[in-house]
Amino acid sequence: MSSTENPDFIPMLAEQNGLKRALEKFPDGVKGAAERGLRPVGSLPPGNSPTTNPAPVFNPEQYEPGK
Predict the structure, then answer these.
(1) pLDDT tens figures, 4-56
(2) Contacts of 29 by beta carbon, 8 Å cutoff, 6+ apart
(3) Is the pTM of this model over 0.85?
(4) How far apart are CA 44 and CA 52, in angstroms?
(5) Distance separating alpha carbons of residues 29 and 59, to the nearest angstrom
(6) Are 2 and 38 in contact (CB under 8 A)?
(7) What is the SS3 assignment for 1?
(8) Do 30 and 43 meet the contact criterion of CB atoms below 8 Å apart?
(9) Residue 44 phi/psi, 5° resolution?
């Protein structure tokens, strides 16, 4: 979501993360950082999705000695 879609998004995000005072003192810096942080880092390789590999399941039996 871009801050141009919802002008209250960046102030709300800053307040939730304890950056309200930083936003008041350095509005351009905080808004720029939020915009950069909302962009994806990069695209996935072809044929992969964010859920390609399921997370491993915790198995407590592996850690119980003598069984």
Answers:
(1) 567 788 888 888 888 889 989 999 998 888 888 888 777 877 877 777 666 67
(2) 22
(3) no
(4) 10
(5) 45
(6) yes
(7) coil
(8) no
(9) -75, 155
